[in-house]
UniProtKB/TrEMBL annotation:
Species of the source: Sphaerisporangium aureirubrum
GO terms of molecular function: beta-glucosidase activity
Entry similarity comment: Belongs to the glycosyl hydrolase 1 family.
Name of protein: Beta-glucosidase
Keyword Hydrolase included in the entry's annotation: yes
Length: 478
């Protein structure tokens, strides 16, 4: 079955100017393996993404992150681009293999030197750094010992967090432990489309638990060292039935509502409830027990995991649409979803094939604020890949990316609508600052508001970047 999505916002979200609260944080986000390059410079060890991308058939066109955007050498110029755009915040990730090449043991000072230089350059530009400790580049040496399926990795992660904070914590107040642990667990260990490429639902469920344990232990280490703010970033989506996509007020059937509830527990609440509330949803525990047993969940784990985030980071791209589907096998990315149909959608979509549903972001932010009212929210990723065309202009190359500009406009209005509805949203970080290595898609999927010519490393501000610059300057949309 397919369902048609609405690519524009309902009228009540689009009328009039959208001015954001004073102090709303505007910025951009990137990730280490996707932009840094310099894969073997200054003592950096191998990550699982180095191994995965160099394995034939794993990444489109055989692309790797060996060079990427060469941000490791061009970071100062890239900070200059942020300054030109008026950004107040920059969310970057630290490459664990730069800090500890083997994931444990001695610290590599040359690896941390890079983040020293980056943070100092950001300070010169008046841009607030938001450091993410894990954006998927696990040291390969730890994967060889079992990776995130082993609880020891969570303890090694906490040690690494303390080492990173000891070096730059005097200048970095905003820390994120994990980026999208659901993706890292279920696409990395369940479906195998991401590194490390394993395909075992039991391993994925164990990895998910150990990611959360790593968050809890690292949060304790950061706070003991003096960290002011710790954030957990999740890939969150509203889980809707086809009727709710067409009409947000629609009441689904009992069977469809159960399917949506089960998927919501696996996608959203599995990652947030243990951290924010200290317990897994019962539906999740039943599925974990059936697939993996409960032996990997130790008696004190939930006490350690229950370290509520100061902010919840929300990465939003599209809703998840499901309905009851008797006889359907379990989705490999969602163990325990027998008899659930994941519904394809028709309508406007990005180059990734992801449906464009900005109202889903409003719905999600309002829901999260109601579910976790004690915790503020930040949109830490939102953006779109389109097939950009570079044209010649009098002053140099131009990229007239009208689709991306429209995407950002509609989603920013959706964020504003959520704020107006009472959601405690503190800021918005566009994904992404730069075109980059887009994981298994390689370099042919471009999310950046800055175009990268990967042959020459030339940077060009796209029209969407100029649009975003105006939004930042005006603290809203006309």
């Amino acid at each position: 079955m397919t369902v048609t999505t609405r690519g524009t916002l309902p009228s009540y979200l689009t009328e009039g100017p959208a001015v954001f609260p004073q102090g709303f944080v505007w910025g951009a986000a990137t990730a280490s393996y996707q932009i840094e390059g310099a894969a073997r410079d200054d003592g950096r060890g191998l990550s699982i993404w180095d191994s995965f991308s160099h394995t034939p058939g794993k990444v489109a066109f055989g692309h790797t992150g060996d060079v990427a955007c060469d941000h490791y050498h061009r970071y100062s110029d890239d900070v200059g681009l942020m300054t030109d755009l008026g950004l107040a915040a920059y969310r970057f990730s630290i490459a664990w293999p730069r800090v500890q090449p083997d994931g444990t043991g001695p610290i590599n000072p040359r690896g941390l030197d890079f983040y020293d230089r980056l943070v100092d350059r950001l300070a010169e530009a008046g841009i607030t750094p938001y450091a993410t400790l894990y954006h998927w580049d696990l040291p390969q040496a730890l994967e060889d010992r079992g990776g995130w399926t082993e609880r020891d990795t969570a303890y090694r992660f906490a040690e690494y967090a303390a080492a990173a904070y000891a070096r730059i914590g005097d200048r970095v107040s905003h820390w994120t432990t994990l980026n999208e642990p659901w993706v890292a667990a279920f696409l990395g260990y369940g479906t195998g489309v991401h590194a490390p490429g394993r395909t075992d639902p039991a391993q994925a469920l164990r990895a998910a638990h150990h990611f959360l344990l790593g968050h809890g232990l690292a949060t304790q280490a950061l706070r003991a060292a003096g960290a002011r703010e710790v954030m957990l970033v999740i890939n969150s989506s509203p889980v809707l039935t086809p009727e709710q996509v067409a009409d947000p007020a629609a009441e689904p059937s009992e069977a469809d509502a159960e399917a949506a509830h089960r998927v919501d527990c696996l996608l959203n609440r599995q990652m947030l409830d243990p951290v924010q509330r200290g317990a897994y949803p019962e539906e999740v525990l039943r599925i974990v027990e059936r697939y993996a047993g409960l032996g990997h969940i130790h008696d004190t784990d939930l006490r350690d995991i229950h370290q509520p985030a100061d902010l919840i980071g929300v990465n939003y791209y599209n809703p998840c649409v499901v309905r009851s589907g008797p006889g359907q096998p379990s989705n490999p990315a969602f163990p325990g979803t027998e008899d659930v149909e994941f519904v394809a959608t028709e309508g406007p979509a990005t180059a990734m094939g992801w449906p464009i549903v900005p109202s889903g972001l409003s719905r999600l932010l309002v829901r999260l604020s109601k579910d976790y009212p004690e915790t503020g929210l930040m949109v830490t990723e939102n953006g779109a890949a389109f097939d950009d065309v570079v044209t010649a202009g009098e002053a140099g190359p131009r990229v007239h990316d009208a689709e991306r500009t429209a995407y950002l406009d509609s989603h920013l209005r959706a964020v504003h609508a959520a704020v107006e509805a009472g959601a405690d949203v503190r800021g918005y970080l566009v994904w992404s600052l730069l075109d980059n290595f887009e994981w298994a898609e390689g370099y042919h999927r471009r999310f950046g508001i800055v175009h990268i010519d990967f042959a020459t490393q030339r940077r060009t501000l796209k029209d969407s970047a100029l649009f975003y610059r105006d939004v930042v300057r005006e603290n809203g949309l006309a």
